[in-house]
Automatic annotation (TrEMBL):
One of its GO terms (molecular function) is monooxygenase activity. Heme binds at residue 378. The keyword Oxidoreductase applies. It comes from Malaciobacter mytili LMG 24559. InterPro entries: Cyt_P450, Cyt_P450_CS, Cyt_P450_E_grp-I, Cyt_P450_sf, Cytochrome_P450_Monoox. The keyword Transcription regulation does not apply. Belongs to the cytochrome P450 family. Its cofactor is heme. Keywords: Heme, Iron, Metal-binding, Monooxygenase, Oxidoreductase. This is Cytochrome P450 family protein.
Length: 430
C-alpha cells in the first residue's frame, strides 16, 4: 500500500484560536477547531456566545448521544441552522416528542426490509446517472464525478418518496435544486449556501402540490402505531430527506472514487473482487454482501471523510458526563472527524488503509460513528450503504479511474466536501 497521506483538515493550536461565535467555530473547522482534539478526549473553547465543548472520545460521545434524561438535547443552534434549508417541522428540526414521532413514522421507510422492493429502481436510477462517465470516456474528457453522484443519489431519494408506483417525474425545480446545492457546496461559501437556502424555499413550494399524493403512503403514516404526519410535516421531511439524504451519500461516493484515483493498487484489487464475484451476472443485493474489499473501502472513506463531521447538542442544566462537569448552556460539538482520526484509537490515523477494517478491535469499533448513535442516529445509513455499493460496483466493473486531474483538499462546513469539482480521468476497463 502506498504510504501517501490523503489530504486532510489542518486545525489550529487552541492558544491561536481567535474569539468567535459557537456556530462559526463549529462550521469553520480549520480556523476554529483546536488541534488538541485529535489527541485529547475533550477541549473547551470560550466563544463570544458562551462555552463550546469539543468532544472526540467515543465513551463521552456515546454518553452524550444516548442520554435518556432529556438534559442534553439537540441544540437550538443546529435546529435553526438546519431549519433554514429544510423547514422547521421535520425529523431533524422538531424537538422532543414531535421529533420522536417523525422518527417512528419515517424509520420503516428506510428499513432493510424494503430493500428488495427498492433495489431494482435504485439500480436503474444509478445506471442512468453514471451514463455521463461513458460519454466522457468516449470524448476523452475528465468527468466531474461529484455531479454524477449527486444526480444519482438525488434520483434515488426522489424515487423512494414520490416515485415507485406513483410514477411522478421530478419537476424541473427539484432537479435544479440538486445542481444548485452541488454548486453552492462547491464554492464552500455560506453566502452562496444562502442562495441555496432561497432555492430551498422554492423547492418547498414545488413539493406542496405533491404532498397529498403521498399522504396515504408509508412516508406519511405508520399504521402500526397510528401516526399520521400533517401536510406541513410531510413537506419539511421531504425537503430534509431530498437535500441532506442525497448530499451526504453523494459526498461519500465522491471521496471513495477520489481515493481510488490515488490508490491504484487498491482500485485493482477491488475491480478484481467485483470481476470474480459478479462476473457477467446481473447485480443483486446478495452479491453486494459478498464484496468485503469494497465494503472496507466504504468504511475507510467514511472514517477519513465522514460527510457529517459533527453534530451539536446543548446542556439545559448542569450535568456530569464521564468525569466532566458541564455547565448548563454549554454547546457540545460531537466531532466525528477527530474521533475517526484520534491518536488514542487509530494506528496511523491519517493513512488510507481499508484493510484496517478486517481487524478492528472493540475500541476502534466504538470510535467509528459516521452515522452517529442514540436518539437521533441516522435512519438512512443502510440505504446510503446500498446506494454506494451499487454505484461503485456498477462503475468499477467497467471503468478504470486513471487519475484525479486537479488537486483537491477537504473543506469543512458542517459537512466535509472537496474544495472543488473532483475531475477524474477515466477509461474503459478491459
Ligand atoms: C453516507 C451518508 C450519510 C451519512 C454520513 C449520514 C449521517 C447522519 C448523521 C451523523 C446523523 C445524526 C444527526 C444528529 O444527530 O443530529 C444523521 C441523521 C439522519 N439521517 Fe443520515 N446520513 C447519511 C445518509 C442518509 C440518507 C441516505 C438518509 C435518508 C434518505 C438519511 C436520513 C437521516 C435522518 C432521517 C436522520 C435524522 C434522525 C433523527 O434525527 O432522528 N441519512 N445522518
Amino acid at each position: 500500500m502506498k504510504s501517501l497521506i490523503p489530504p486532510q483538515l489542518k486545525f489550529q493550536p487552541l492558544k491561536n484560536i481567535k474569539a468567535t461565535s459557537a456556530l462559526r467555530a463549529m462550521l469553520y473547522a480549520e480556523e476554529f477547531w483546536p488541534e488538541e482534539i485529535l489527541n485529547k478526549p475533550s477541549v473547551s473553547l470560550k466563544t463570544t456566545t458562551g462555552e463550546l465543548l469539543f468532544l472526540s472520545d467515543p465513551f463521552l460521545v456515546k454518553e452524550v448521544l444516548t442520554r435518556n434524561d432529556g438534559t442534553i438535547p439537540r441544540s437550538r443552534l443546529q435546529q435553526r441552522f438546519a431549519g433554514h434549508g429544510t423547514g422547521r417541522e421535520n425529523v431533524i428540526t422538531d424537538i422532543g416528542k414531535r421529533s420522536a414521532m417523525h422518527r417512528k413514522t419515517l424509520a420503516p421507510l428506510f428499513s432493510p426490509d424494503r430493500f428488495n422492493t427498492y433495489f431494482p429502481f435504485i439500480k436503474m436510477t444509478l445506471e442512468e446517472a453514471i451514463k455521463p462517465i461513458f460519454d466522457a470516456i468516449e470524448k476523452k474528457e475528465p468527468i466531474d464525478i461529484g455531479r454524477v453522484c449527486v444526480n444519482g443519489t438525488f434520483g434515488v431519494i426522489w424515487q423512494i418518496l414520490f416515485g415507485e408506483d406513483k410514477k411522478l417525474t421530478p419537476p424541473l425545480i427539484v432537479e435544479q435544486m440538486a445542481n444548485t446545492l452541488y454548486e453552492a457546496g462547491l464554492s464552500g461559501e455560506l453566502t452562496q449556501t444562502s442562495k441555496a437556502v432561497k432555492q430551498a424555499k422554492e423547492i418547498s413550494l414545488s413539493l406542496r402540490p405533491l404532498v397529498p399524493l403521498v399522504s396515504d403512503t408509508p412516508f406519511a403514516k405508520n399504521p402500526k402505531i397510528n401516526l399520521q404526519l400533517t401536510n406541513k410535516e410531510l413537506e419539511d421531511n421531504a425537503q430534509f430527506l431530498l437535500t441532506s439524504g442525497h448530499e451526504s451519500t453523494a459526498l461519500t461516493i465522491t471521496w471513495a472514487l477520489f481515493l481510488l484515483a490515488h490508490y491504484q493498487d487498491e482500485q485493482e484489487l477491488i475491480a478484481n473482487e467485483i470481476k470474480n464475484i459478479l462476473g457477467n451476472k446481473e447485480l443483486t443485493l446478495d452479491i453486494l454482501h459478498k464484496l468485503p474489499r469494497l465494503n472496507n473501502l466504504f468504511n475507510e472513506t467514511m472514517r477519513l471523510y465522514p460527510s457529517a463531521i459533527l453534530v451539536n447538542r446543548e446542556t439545559i442544566q448542569d450535568v456530569t458526563v464521564g468525569e466532566l462537569s458541564i455547565k448548563k448552556g454549554t454547546q457540545i460539538a460531537v466531532c466525528f472527524y477527530s474521533m475517526h482520526r484520534h491518536k488514542n484509537y487509530w494506528k496511523e490515523p491519517d493513512s488510507f488503509n481499508p484493510d484496517r477494517f478486517n481487524t478492528l478491535n472493540k475500541e476502534q469499533l466504538r470510535a467509528f460513528m459516521p452515522f452517529s448513535t442514540g436518539h437521533h442516529s441516522c435512519l438512512g445509513g443502510k440505504l446510503a450503504w446500498l446506494e454506494a455499493m451499487t454505484i461503485l460496483t456498477t462503475i468499477l466493473k467497467d471503468v478504470k479511474i486513471l487519475s484525479c486531474k486537479n488537486s483537491i483538499k477537504p473543506i469543512a462546513r458542517y459537512t466535509l466536501r472537496p474544495d472543488g469539482p473532483v475531475m477524474l480521468e477515466v477509461q474503459k476497463r478491459n
